[in-house]
Design brief:
With about 180 residues, this protein is an alpha+beta fold. It has helices at about 1-35, 120-125, 160-165; strands at about 45-50, 55-60, 70-80, 80-90, 100, 105-115, 130-140, 145-155.
Length: about 180
């Protein structure tokens, strides 16, 4: 009988200790997570294909706990002998000067060509070798008001039609009459 009482006392003590540990964990874990989670937006970008050959998709996800904004996109790099620096792209759904990406949200933006690159010809884009090194620069602002720029390299093989839309159309000479 004495042995059962000692066992029961130990069991009650262990259960009480475990109950205390669980109670403290329930309170401490959320506080620790909140303490170490940055109070900002965290925008993640991905280039996506589109059905329209003159546009490219930009998927933007916000894994932060505050909203962030996208304010523009441009093209930089080189195609053949043509240096491209800051060639502006039109961002769909910009809604004025910026588009808000809420926390935990993902949005698909379409980037369109506004103008061609002067002097760029189709044959300079078609090989898609080392002569074509181009990227999209995305401008954004985080919740704290800090401007950021992300550089996303374009895979020429996958986005050839989009890159071809920057080439000037060859002039068609009028057919000589009889």
């Amino acid at each position: 009988m004495e042995k059962n009482r000692d066992t029961l006392t130990w069991t009650i003590s262990i259960v009480a200790l475990l109950n205390s540990i669980v109670s403290v964990s329930v309170v401490v874990v959320p506080i620790a997570i909140n303490l170490f989670t940055p109070k900002n937006s965290n925008l993640i970008y991905s280039i996506q294909a589109t059905a329209d050959p003159t546009s490219i998709g930009l998927l933007v996800s916000n894994s932060g706990i505050r909203a962030g904004t996208i304010s523009g996109a441009s093209l930089s790099g080189h195609i053949g002998n043509h240096e491209v620096d800051g060639l502006e792209l039109r961002v769909s759904d910009l809604g004025g000067s910026a588009a808000i990406v809420s926390p935990g949200d993902t949005k698909l933006f379409t980037l369109n060509v506004l103008k061609t690159i002067p002097g760029l010809r189709f044959f300079e884009v078609l090989p898609c070798g080392p002569a074509v090194a181009i990227s999209i620069d995305v401008s954004s602002t985080d919740f704290l008001g800090q401007r950021q720029s992300a550089r996303l390299p374009i895979n020429c093989e996958e986005q050839r039609n989009f890159l071809l839309s920057f080439a000037e159309m060859p002039e068609v000479s009028p057919k000589m009459g009889n």
